Amino acid sequence: MNDFLLDVAGTVTLALTAWLMAGAVSRLLGMTFGLTRRLAAGLLAVFTFTPIVRSFAGGMSTANDSFTPFWFMLLGIASSMLVAMVCLVLAEVLVPTGSLPHPVDFVRGLRGRIARGKRYSRILRIAVRHGLSPYLSGRRRDPLAAASTRTRLAGSLARALDEAGVTFVKLGQVLSTRRDLLPAEFVEQLSRLRDRAAPARWEEVERVLTEELGAPPAEVFAEFDHVPLAAASVAQVHAAVLRSGERVVVKVQRPGIAEVVDRDLDIVARLARRLETGTRWGATMGVRELADGFAEAIREELDFHVETANMAAVAAATAGRDTGVRYPVPHERLCGRRVLVMQRLDGVPLSAAGPVIAERGLDPAELARTLLDTLLRQIMIDGVFHADPHPGNVLLLDGGGLGMLDFGSVGRLDDGLREALQRLLLAMDKGDSTACTDALLEVVQRPDEIDEERLERALGQFLARHMGPATSLGLRMFTDLFRIVADFGLAIPPEVAAVFRALATLEGGLAELAPGFDLVTEARAAASRYVGERLDADALRRTTGEELLTLLPMLRRLPRRIDRIAGALEHGRLGLNVRLFADQRDREHVTGLLHQALLTVLGATAGIMAVLLLGTGGGPGVTAGVSLFQLIGYNLLVISAVLVLRVLVLIFRRAR
Question: Where's the ABC1 atypical kinase-like domain (predicted)?
Answer without folding.
Answer: 192-437
